[in-house]
Amino acid sequence: MPERMPYIAGNWKLWGTRAQAGEYCQKLLALLPEPSRRPAEVGVCVPFTSLEVAVKALAGSQVLVLAQNMNAEETGAYTGEISAQMLLELGADGVVLGHSERREHNGETDRALQEKVPAALEAGLRPILCVGESEEEREAGDMERKLRHQVGEGLHEVPDERIADVVVAYEPIWAIGTGQVATADQAQEAIAFVRALVGGRTEEAAQAIRLLYGGSVKPENAAEILAQTDVDGALVGGGSLDPEGFARIVAAAG
Ligand code: 13P
After folding, report:
1. In angstroms, what is the span from residue 168 Cα to ligand 1's centroid?
2. What is the pTM of this model?
3. What pLDDT, on a 0 to 100 scale, did the predictor assign at position 3?
4. Which pLDDT does position 2 carry in this prediction?
5. Domain count of the fold of the chain
């Protein structure tokens, strides 16, 4: 079985002026161990306007810098959009795709994600594809159906040999920003199901792909969730905005 390097990514969402981003990155670097002694790969997902500052501040630190969205097209009549090439030009390493907040507030669709995920990979960006059910869907027993649909669509156009280069974050909508973290068992169950779905494409990719949990991860609950067999890391929202807390979550991956 391949060793899967844990991955802890902080999603700043709508936070972080350029000044705040620079200050945050300095603080975070002072708190993280040397790259070779880190128990996890670390990434920050920052607003477009702070990408350049974060890339500069984190240069040589092996902390990855990700954007929070992109368009699948390279150019065209898409006002307000940003392409993979534009992100690469700023030095971004990856991009978050299909976050539930973008699905809810910005009309992000599985159809668009079918194009965005392979477009990011082809351009050389490492995508984090977000999936997860709402509270109503969970209560109606529809979690698996929802995950099967989202994972199936998001990876549909990704060639088998590139699937393991995608990271999938399972973020149950009811746990995002609510303080209501999934139990370790719930996280394990859903993420094992996602791994089985990937196994429906290729077993090799299922063993290699990294699957994260997201939703109210804090320094206090991170270790238990990260200890689950199929949980390879965390996508942390509010808990990542304090560099000290975020560094503690990284340490919990050890
Ligand atoms: P919170 O950690 O604030 O619940 O957010 C999770 C999330 O949406 C990360 O992408």
Report:
1. 14
2. 0.98
3. 85
4. 61
5. 1
pLDDT tens digit sequence for 70-127: 999 999 999 999 999 999 999 999 999 999 999 999 999 999 999 999 999 999 999 9
DSSP 129: E
DSSP conformation letters of 195-242: HHHHHTT-HHHHHH-EEEEESS--HHHHHHHHTSTT--EEEESGGGSS
Domain with 111, as residue range(s), is 7-68+80-252
CA of 179 to the centre of ligand 1 (A): 10
Spot the catalytic one: 41, 99, 108, 153. Answer: 99
| Active-site annotation holds for 171 | yes
Residue 74 is assigned to a structural domain of this protein: no
Q: By C-alpha distance, which of 113, 102, 98 is closest to 157?
A: 113
The Cα–Cα gap between 126 and 66 comes to 8
CATH classification at residue 158: 3.20.20.70
Q: Could you report the per-residue pLDDT of 162-193, keeping only the tens digit for each?
A: 999 999 999 999 999 999 999 999 999 999 99
Of 174, 216, 221, 248, which is best to mutate to test ligand 1, by the most ligand atoms within 8 angstroms of its C-beta?
Answer: 216
Atom of ligand 1 nearest to the CA of 130: 10
